[in-house]
């Protein structure tokens, strides 16, 4: 058995069976890696989230040479969780794969069954939501928002909550109303600085961000993607400021805000070319 395992572990073309065996060996209580053996679902979950973001980052940067490795890292997270579940007698990786296969077949009856009338992405989205609603009902979910995952990034969860509420008619019909609400929340936030406690200021800030996510939804913009792009733009332009200052033999902390503002405007103008 050990010999067969070693052969598989060192087989460069071993594919998924090789990865599963490597994971099993890493978690072996007698011969495995102490760090891997010590982990549980809770300690690995943050790494799972991090790897998902690194996949998104590689795609955002169109770093196709890195994407293979990032997808592998994310796959390894699924393998790690499945191995821990198998050790507890909950399920194994093959059951994970079968569950996903069953779900995809059930949610695509126009591909794997006889359903007709789904001839556009919009029609598929509507059908997808109908099928998911039936699945939620079968699980015993009673409230419209019951199974929107709490662990999602807050901005993404806000978007999902709003989409779910909108499907049952709880939504502003006009984007102008959303803009009015955003202006109202901005005014409340400005006033909160002077009159409210820090906890109340935080609450007002949360309201403002929640409405901003709703505005993004009405504009058909992914707020997470938009914010990632804004972060990238800020990073790029600030790096330009640092480079210009370095040419002058200076660092940001040795410069004035006015100097850096002028360099920011120059970087902005260069980009718009």
UniProtKB/TrEMBL annotation:
Keywords: Hydrolase. InterPro entries: MazG-like_dom, NTP-PPase_MazG-like_C, NTP-PPase_MazG-like_N, NTP_PyrPHydrolase_MazG. Its EC number is 3.6.1.9. PANTHER family: NUCLEOSIDE TRIPHOSPHATE PYROPHOSPHOHYDROLASE. It holds the Pfam family MazG. It is an enzyme of class 3 (hydrolase). Residues 39-112, 179-237 form the NTP pyrophosphohydrolase MazG-like domain. The keyword Hydrolase applies. One of its GO terms (molecular function) is nucleoside triphosphate diphosphatase activity. This is Nucleoside triphosphate pyrophosphohydrolase. It comes from Psychromarinibacter halotolerans. Gene3D superfamilies: MazG-like (1.10.287.1080).
């Amino acid at each position: 058995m050990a010999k067969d395992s070693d052969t598989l572990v060192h087989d460069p073309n071993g594919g998924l069976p090789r990865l599963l065996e490597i994971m099993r060996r890493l978690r072996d209580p007698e011969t495995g890696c102490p760090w891997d053996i010590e982990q549980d679902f809770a300690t690995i979950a943050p790494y799972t989230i991090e790897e998902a973001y690194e996949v998104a980052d590689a795609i955002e940067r169109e770093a196709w040479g890195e994407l293979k490795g990032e997808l592998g890292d994310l796959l390894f997270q699924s393998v790690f969780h499945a191995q821990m579940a198998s050790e507890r007698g909950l399920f194994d990786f093959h059951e994970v794969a079968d569950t996903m296969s069953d779900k995809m077949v059930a949610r695509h009856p126009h591909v794997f069954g006889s359903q007709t009338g789904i001839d556009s992405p919009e029609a598929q989205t509507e059908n997808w939501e109908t099928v998911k609603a039936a699945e939620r009902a079968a699980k015993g979910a009673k409230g419209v928002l019951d199974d929107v995952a709490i662990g999602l990034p807050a901005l993404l969860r806000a978007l999902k909550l709003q989409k779910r509420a909108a499907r049952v008619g709880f939504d502003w019909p006009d984007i102008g109303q959303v803009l009015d609400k955003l202006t109202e929340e901005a005014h409340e936030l400005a006033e909160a600085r002077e009159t409210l406690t820090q906890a109340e200021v935080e609450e007002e800030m949360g309201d403002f961000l929640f409405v901003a996510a709703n505005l993004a939804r009405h504009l058909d913009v992914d707020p997470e993607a938009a914010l990632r792009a804004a972060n990238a733009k800020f990073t790029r332009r600030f790096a330009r400021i640092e480079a210009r200052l370095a040419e002058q033999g200076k660092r940001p902390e040795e410069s004035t805000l006015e100097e850096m503002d002028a360099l920011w405007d120059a970087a902005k103008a260069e980009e718009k070319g």
